[in-house]
């Protein structure tokens, strides 16, 4: 049975209406954040929202900022799977210091739904070219781009050369789909340092993402932390 949220996602996902709705919510959330959070942080997130279309609300972008910052002094690099136009990646760029940041996307939009996704998504939704994101993040060093379907894009000879033996302190998943989320969890969980964070968008919004997390968490000692937004995270023991 398709839920009300999924009906909305199927019809409006990625559309002008979804963007307008997110813009309105974010406007309100930025007002509230501005009343009690650090002004520099709020200004930065507002600026990114102006620069790039993003599917994140203001609170969700704040959660990326604050969780990634909380582990910035742990050893280990950072990664994101699901970059779109680079809004969430830009938050990570500003925090990463000397760490490497690995960014994965098809740069051709969403792949096909699996049966677990309930046919919510349209293939190629959220397309942005690799060149456009590279240009947007051009000011930052040690940012590496991997074009293609994850996890295949992490398993080429070229990728192995740079990714072999890496450990991660923070990874952000925003792929909207069951197969991609499952692949992210399977790939990164064994590579996370103790205390490292795996944060995902859309856990409580998209059934494929939720199912991938619920199945994975049932097999590991760590619990799932759900946020009031659509996000969730796992902190590696
Ligand atoms: C909602 S968008 C990401 C939004 C982005 N994090 C932001 O800040 O606005 C989802 C992205 O996931 C990518 N994607 C989905 N499944 C993927 C996979 N298996 N491998 C690589 N990219 C994938 C799509 O191409 C799309 O750019």
Summarize the structure in short.
This protein has 237 residues and is α/β, with parallel strands linked by helices.
Protein described:
- Helix content is 43%, strand content 15%.
- The chain starts with a helix and ends with a strand.
- The protein is globular, with a radius of gyration of 17 Å.
- The chain has one domain: Vaccinia Virus protein VP39 (Rossmann fold, 3-Layer(aba) Sandwich).
- The chain has helices at 4-12, 16-36, 39-51, 58-70, 87-95, 130-136, 157-163, 178-188, 207-217; strands spanning 77-81, 101-105, 143-147, 168-173, 192-200, 225-226, 232-235.
- It has a seven-stranded mixed β-sheet, with helices on both faces.
- The chain is α/β, with parallel strands linked by helices and 237 residues long.
- Helix 3 (39-51) packs across helix 4 (58-70), helix 4 runs parallel beside helix 5 (87-95) and helix 8 packs parallel to helix 9.
- Residues 54-56, 81-85, 87-88, 104-106, 109-111, 126, 149-150, 174-177, 180 line the site of S-adenosylmethionine (SAM).
Q: How are the SSEs ordered, and which strands pair?
A:
Layout: H1 4-12, H2 16-36, H3 39-51, H4 58-70, E1 77-81, H5 87-95, E2 101-105, H6 130-136, E3 143-147, H7 157-163, E4 168-173, H8 178-188, E5 192-200, H9 207-217, E6 225-226, E7 232-235
Parallel strand pairs: 1-2, 1-4, 2-3, 4-5
Antiparallel strand pairs: 5-7, 6-7
Helix pairs in contact: 2-3, 3-4, 4-5, 8-9
The protein binds S-adenosylmethionine.
